[in-house]
Each structure stands twice: as structure tokens, then as C-alpha cells.
Specification:
- It is a single chain.
- With 224 residues, this protein is α/β, with parallel strands linked by helices.
- It folds into two domains: 148 residues, 3-Layer(aba) Sandwich (Alpha/beta knot); 54 residues, no CATH class.
- It is built from eight helices and nine strands.
- The strands form three sheets. The chain has a five-stranded parallel β-sheet, covered by helices on one side. A two-stranded antiparallel sheet has the order 6-9.
- Strand 3, helix 4 and strand 4 form a beta-alpha-beta unit.
- 32% of the residues are buried.
- Bound molecules: S-adenosylmethionine.
């Protein structure tokens, strides 16, 4: 980001997650790191920006993300006037689904940095009212990292939403937490849609299963 607040995109497509919660939960930290790593490792690379942070420097330390990926400014301030038409909000309530052609109209894909809830409380509405064009990723609620992953598959790999393989509302077998021995018989139901990985399982951020296992005694809806 330059001194006057302009984002330097180097012509790269960009994922922006506007952080909408007062704090940064462990779950969100894993999701944000995962989005950032996938943006860096994709070919061509995508730029990743986490906006609307309570205090960018603290969160930066917590996430070990470069300063160029963090800002306390809201996307509403960053994208004004004509620049706003280049931003696509991924919105579960949008009328149109995202298509590969949208990669030609939009440079920036915007997501709500919100933990999922079931039923959804439509907090994405906080971004919708800023007036960005919206696109849906089908009818199922995705985690933020899944929504970003699916967007890159549609826009960069030019795959249609319906051609992507998903795992819906999986029951995830948890690893044994430390001190419990090898196996755990516990599982947790995740009320979201995920991309299906090559192993047939839901693709999740690194560390998410361990976090789920360590929090297994809590109600899942208190964590998401
Ligand atoms: N329950 C949330 C709400 O109140 O809006 C949805 C949060 S979802 C975990 C986080 C973000 O992922 C959303 O703000 C949206 O940008 C994106 N997202 C998730 N599922 C989506 C879908 N089916 N279509 C479009 N965007 C989606």
C-alpha cells in the first residue's frame, strides 16, 4: 500500500477479506493464513489483503502476514468512485452466481471476515450496503477460506461452480488431543460446504482439525 492509501495491485487479481468481528479468533487466524498461502502459491499469484483490522500491527504479528497484506482501513474507504465497479462482493444473497467471465469484469473479490453461523445471520449485509456488485457461490454457506478457494477456481481456472466437487456438511473425525492416546472416537458436524480434496475429504486450513479437537468439549456454534 502506498502512503496515500492506494493499494498497489501489480495487475494481479486480488482477494480482500474485510474483518468484521471485534477480535481475531483462532479459527479466523487459521482461515486467513490459509487464504494468504493459497494466494501466494497459486499460479498466477493473487494478492491478498485483510482490511478493516482493529489494529493491523498486532494482528500482523499474530498472523505473520506481510504489512502489505494488512490494513486498518475499510474496503469502503479503499474503493471509492469508479474504482468500486472493479470490486465483486461474494454474497450468499446475490441474485447471480459467480462465473468464469466475471474474472474479466472484476479485479477484486471481496469476502466477509465472519465466522459462519447456522442459520446464517446475513452479516455479509454489512458489506452489501456499501454498494458493491454481488455474486453468489451457490446456495450453501461456505467458510471464508472455502469461498475464496472456490472463487479462485472459477475465475483463474475458469471452472463453472457446478463442475467443482464439494463435500457438504461433513462429519469430521477428530484427531486425539494430546495425552489421550492414539485414537479419538469423537467427530464434529460442520454445517458448511467445502471443496473436495484429492483424498475425497473436505479441504480445510492447516491446524483446523487440531483446533477442533482441542475445543471438542465446546458447542461448535460457540466457535464458528
Ligand atoms: N453467516 C454469514 C453471514 O452472516 O453472511 C456467512 C459468512 S461466510 C462464513 C463468510 C464469507 O464467505 C461471506 O461473507 C461471503 O463473502 C462468503 N461466502 C460464504 N458462502 C457463500 C456463498 N454461498 N455465496 C457467496 N459468498 C459466500
Amino acid at each position: 500500500m502506498s502512503a496515500n492509501g492506494e493499494i498497489s495491485l501489480d495487475g494481479r487479481p486480488t482477494i480482500i477479506v474485510e474483518h468484521l468481528d471485534p477480535e481475531l479468533e483462532d479459527w479466523q487466524a487459521l482461515e486467513y493464513k490459509c487464504i494468504s498461502e493459497e494466494c501466494t502459491n497459486s499460479a498466477p499469484q493473487w494478492h491478498f489483503l485483510l482490511s478493516g483490522l482493529p489494529s493491523a500491527s498486532d494482528v500482523g504479528k499474530q498472523l505473520s502476514l506481510p504489512a502489505t497484506s494488512l490494513t486498518e482501513q475499510s474496503v469502503e474507504t479503499l474503493y471509492q468512485g469508479d474504482r468500486r465497479s472493479k470490486v465483486c462482493l461474494l454474497d450468499p444473497k446475490a441474485e447471480k452466481d459467480l462465473s468464469p467471465e466475471d474474472g474479466e469484469s472484476f479485479d477484486v473479490f471481496l469476502f466477509g471476515g465472519i465466522l459462519g453461523d447456522d442459520p446464517p445471520r446475513d452479516r455479509t449485509g454489512e458489506l452489501r450496503k456499501m454498494g458493491f456488485a454481488g455474486r453468489r457461490l451457490g446456495t450453501e454457506q461456505m467458510t471464508t477460506d472455502t469461498a475464496a478457494r472456490v472463487t479462485r477456481i472459477v475465475v483463474a481456472d475458469r471452472q463453472h461452480l457446478n463442475d467443482i466437487s464439494y463435500v457438504d456438511r461433513p462429519d469430521i473425525a477428530l484427531p486425539a488431543s494430546s495425552g489421550e492416546g492414539e485414537a479419538s472416537s469423537e467427530s464434529v458436524s460442520m454445517p458448511f460446504r467445502y471443496v473436495k480434496g484429492k483424498d475425497g475429504k473436505a479441504v480445510m486450513p492447516k491446524g483446523m482439525l487440531d483446533l477442533l479437537a482441542s475445543d471438542a468439549d465446546k458447542d461448535i456454534m460457540d466457535l464458528l
